[in-house]
Amino acid sequence: MNTKQIRNVDISGIQHLPMIDFIGNDFAIFDDIRDIPFTPYPTRLNAACFAVCRKGWCKLNINLRDYEMREGMLCIILPEQIVQQGERSDDFSGSFIAVSRDFMDLVIPTMQQLFPMFFMIKERPCIAVTADELQAFEEYHSFLWSKVKLKDNPYRKEITQGLLMALFYEIYDIYQGHAVKERTPKSRKEDLFERFIRYVYEFYKEERSVSFYADKMFLTPKHLSTVVKEVSGKTAGEWIDSLVILEAKAMLKSSEQSIQEIADELHFANQSFFGKYFKHHTGFSPKEYRKQ
């Protein structure tokens, strides 16, 4: 897959459709996807998408892994994930919410606060839910939609943010409940991996060396790298780099900071070093990426 050819899509791409309600380019809510122009080509979503399937089925590829969303399933796509839609049944229907990355950042003050939920979602974006859990999502969907329609209410954005925060905690509870039911007890290696990821989320802006995290965990860099690779399929360095690049992309796209200021915030020695690092991992210079 050539990531240079991946199309970036955000909420503005569907704002012309009549059966969807919006708050600017931050939030969209709908229950009919027949008019949405899906493409069979890889697409990078610049928003999170929360969906439950009421009927039928739909095939998806999320970050190079295949999933099938069926009746009674919850599916969540996170910002920056690469999505490719496959076949879907003629009777496929559901409830859908799309939230921009910026709007999510306003709702969730720090990523660490709900980090375990995002980690669970990345591992299992589509899960079967109970009838009660499905009903809870539908109730939030209905209530959110009724509030978003109140365009004369000067606080509808703030009301929506509050309801979304509550919904995120409901989803976290759903994922935790299913993890308790379905997972076997964590092995020591899985426990080490989760500790490593938590440290990375805490320090990735300041520290990019595997040895730093190994020292925090009283391990040798070689042992940490072996465990992380065995559990996740990615090296410790790849996990660190992916989070740094994800943050850099978000800052380049959604902030007015100069490239030098972004390099400083991410603790690179200088702008030139940041530029080489970014281009090595993305194929673009920071300036080219910002212009896309």
Automatic annotation (TrEMBL):
- Residue span(s) of domain HTH araC/xylS-type: 194-292
- Fetch the PROSITE patterns from UniProt: HTH_ARAC_FAMILY_2
User: Which keywords describe this protein according to UniProt?
Assistant: DNA-binding, Transcription, Transcription regulation
Fetch the Pfam families from UniProt: HTH_18
GO molecular function terms noted in the UniProt entry: DNA-binding transcription factor activity; sequence-specific DNA binding
Q: Which InterPro entries match?
A: Homeodomain-like_sf (IPR009057), HTH_AraC (IPR018060)
The yes or no answer to whether the keyword NAD is present is no
* Keyword presence, DNA-binding: yes
The protein's name: AraC family transcriptional regulator
